[in-house]
Prior knowledge:
Distance between the termini: 12 Å
Shape: globular
InterPro entries: HD_domain
Organism: Candidatus Galacturonatibacter soehngenii
Protein name: HD domain-containing protein
Domain HD: 13-96
Amino acid sequence: MKKYPHHCSTSCYQHCLNxxxxxFKICKAFGLDAKAAxxxxxxxxxxxxxWRTHAKLTNDRFHAMTHPKVxxxxxxxxxxxxxxxxxxxxxxxxxxxxxPPKSWEAFIxxxxxxxxxxxxxxxxxxxxxxxxxxxxxxGKIHVK
Length: 144
């Protein structure tokens, strides 16, 4: 996952780590299954290809709607997932994927995923377009 770019300069791995962290924190604060939320967050985008070139290679023009199933299948091949973790992965792109989440954890990952994606993109452009002395207020967990 570290090899695949996701949002600008953020790798797919880094994005999943960001989502997993915030999922854990939010779900824990609400007394939900924070462990399942974090585990699912780490593999919610486990599609293992560069989505920028994917459509040209496969003619799949609906990556945003199809990748949750791909990620779930890849995650199931490598990890034991409970039903909640599977739902979280499968529903993380709602409302683009039509069927709404049944659990709060699955709803929260949708919000967290979009939140992290927005700030990963904004962080890239902020750093690219502004002087070095300005700081962007988004705290990321960076792993090399």
